[in-house]
Amino acid sequence: MEATEKDILRGGQFLVKETKCEDVFTPEDFSEEQNMMKEAVMEFNEREIIAHKPRFEAKDYALTEEVMRKAGELGFLGVAVPEAYGGLGMGFVSTCLTCDYISSGTGSFSTAFGAHTGIGTMPITLYGTEAQKQKYVPKLASGEEFGAYCLTEPGAGSDANSGKTTAELSSDGKSYKINGQKMWISNAGFCSVMIVFARIEDDKNITGFIVEYDGDNANGITLGEEEHKLGLNSSSTRQVFFTQVKVPVESLLGGRGNGFKIAMNALNVGRIKLSAAVLDACRRVISLSTNYSNERIQFGIPIAKFGAIKHKLADMAVRTYAIESATYRAGAEIEKNILRLESEGVDHQEAHLKGIEEYAIECSIVKVLGSETIQFCSDEGIQIYGGMGYSADAPMEAAYRDARIARIYEGTNEINRMLLVGMILKKAMKGELDIMGPAMKVAEGLMSIPSFDKPDNSVLFEVEKEQIKKLKKAILMCAGKAAQHFAMTIEREQEVLMNLADMVIEVYTAESAILRAEKLATKKGGQETEHQIAMSKLYLYQAIKNCNQSGEEVILSFAEGDEQRMLLMGLKRFTKGYTINPKEMRRNIAAKLIEENQYCF
Length: 601
Description:
The chain is 57% helix and 9% strand. By secondary structure, it is an alpha+beta fold.
């Protein structure tokens, strides 16, 4: 997956540049090595996790630790770790793939795995000194030791840099004393290495530390009781208290005052990995719902034959196909950028940091949509199961509970929505992303007579691609005018930012699904890929409606009189005219699911 500077679509540039289907990576492009990894992870998931689901639901914390050790022995904890430190040294897409297929058995293991491999190990791999990496990373990669990430504090949820935990340098300059309290710490009950964030003196930004924890020799660290949570029953979640915890100066991570930067970059990776982690859960929920609807007899026939059930199954599949397309597209862009930087002589750490940071916008997009897709699927799954769906004896109840946290951690979806628009505007102001130029052209075009040229309906996706271009113009129009109106106060207009974010999310995801289906159809032919084509068209159909509503709310938030009328007319121009038969498309997609008795796309 080598790439040069000109091949790279920079973060956020999808808004102003057209992408060709051959330039996106899709799950159908997995290499032989990646497919072998996928099979191995799926087999592990079935044998070690799904087979023991009742134990995970019964708060068997020891089982989570045991299965994590087995995952380490098989190399799954070290997929992203360089070979020099005992890992497999695989690329970013393979990291996402592993996270995808190991996470669907239970949210308890998924959380333990994600916390350890991502925010527990990665900060040391990417910010640690050579001595720190040699000391900690091999054991974290093998599962001999487990990591935890201690950032969140009481009263400092989304405001990560406002923590009160302190680190005081000793008089001899050889160690720090850490005092404070952390909460919601995943893996706290069985970790031995903690990434802890604390403030030194009156520093503006927090600092990261690597803190060893041995329960027998606690060094001033005490743990609260296991939290009783809505879901994730066997994921260890505790408060951690630090009282005069002595940490050698050599354990400072990434330089003084760089803790906030470490935290933010760790969260960027965590966001896209969270989206990957819900994908197979969505597939599994759809498969279980399809199984049930084929078996459940009402009024003398399987409920799978009812149009209302077909509607639900199809919508679940459409959303899953779309977010899967967007997640692997973003993951591959990150990998291409990392490889490009490394080929230019940038070292492993810096290449990964810059490669991931470039796509922070896309990471937030897929985090939001991934978490909302698994919530949607599990909710519809309960509805398809009916009364049985509400029972803990059926699989949907646990799926629903476990799904709910995804919209909260790695930054709430509200924070991520505002962040992604803020990042777009910041890139524009820095000159890294030319948004205002295209936005002004769109604004000028509102005064002209619209073109009556129509795309060629006989060419696959010609109409849809034209519609995507129009939706991008709608975003540029709304964002440009809002930025002009609110100026420097726009960051306080949270409702407007969230409306704009919804438009951006819908366009990126719709385009990803269409490009994936087009790439597959180019390879296999339209007849072989009719369901994928239908799914991408259905997603776009709904995305247009959502963009119209969000865009209207943006316009009405500031525009009045003639300006309002002109902008609303422009929005209508950009969001009208796309017609399909959604009922028949849904029935066609559902028929395939019902025939295969599983998610099969």
